Amino acid sequence: MCIASYSCRAQAGADFKAGQLSADRVVKAWAKYNDPLRDLFTTHGLKWPATDIYLRAFKLQNELELWARDNATDEYRHVKTYRICAISGALGPKRKQGDRQVPEGYYFIDEFNPNSDYHLSLHLSYPNYSDLLQGKSNPGGDIYIHGGCLTVGCLPMEDEGIREIYTLCLNTRLNGQQYIPVHIYPTHMNKSGMSYLQKEVAGNVGKQQFWWNLKNGYEHFEKHHKLQPVMYTPDGNYLN
Q1: What is the distance between the alpha carbons of residues 56 and 182, in angstroms, rounded to a whole number?
Q2: CA pair distance 92, 102, nearest whole angstrom
Q3: What is the pLDDT of residues 210-229, one digit of tens each?
Q4: In the 8-state DSSP scheme, what is residue 225?
Q5: Catalytic site residue from 85, 119, 123, 146
Q6: Domain 13-224, architecture per CATH
Q7: Residue 153 carries which DSSP code?
Q8: Which residues pair with 184 in a beta bridge?
Q9: Does 149 participate in catalysis according to the annotation?
Q10: Is 224 a catalytic residue?
Q11: Boundaries of every domain in the chain
Q12: Which of 2, 85, 154, 169 is catalytic?
């Protein structure tokens, strides 16, 4: 379970915008980071507010990458890499409540919480269909990108980091991107990364099979800088 006791369910339209921009923490974050984010996107030749962003996390490297594009036909461009302050658990997917694991797989941001116990937080859509089919009877939940530097399954960015990321994601959400994809990998799934993973879990066939399945989506993005639709086989593997 992630450390964030209060969740703010995403609302539609004006109610969502008014609720977010009336929160003191959001107002302060927006005032500090909106203009620097505009400058950052302008430097990369991208529109602001952003229209389409993608976040990609690597647990072993403690990194959260920001990618963006202006149109659905464009390739994503790498904009910035943030440092994840701490990672709990081991490499591998989250499979049950209380296992302290950070999930691995394909998710999206589905809640914006301006009143988090950890400053600001963005809820991820864990468990997804794959997690439900391949995990235990109680897969857990409450996985967030949040402030602070303490976690039992989330991605903590410290307060300054989450202020910028929250402002970024809220801008994009208000500009029309309903669901912001967040893909979480154990490490870069290139040749050296896969070799490392196989050595780390020698004999664990379940993890090996999961990672080889996850590798397909990683390779597609590396080659095309575009995302595939997230689809599943009947047994919960990613169809990509």
Answers
A1: 6
A2: 8
A3: 999 999 999 999 999 999 99
A4: S
A5: 146
A6: Beta Barrel (2.40)
A7: S
A8: 57, 105
A9: no
A10: no
A11: 13-224
A12: 154
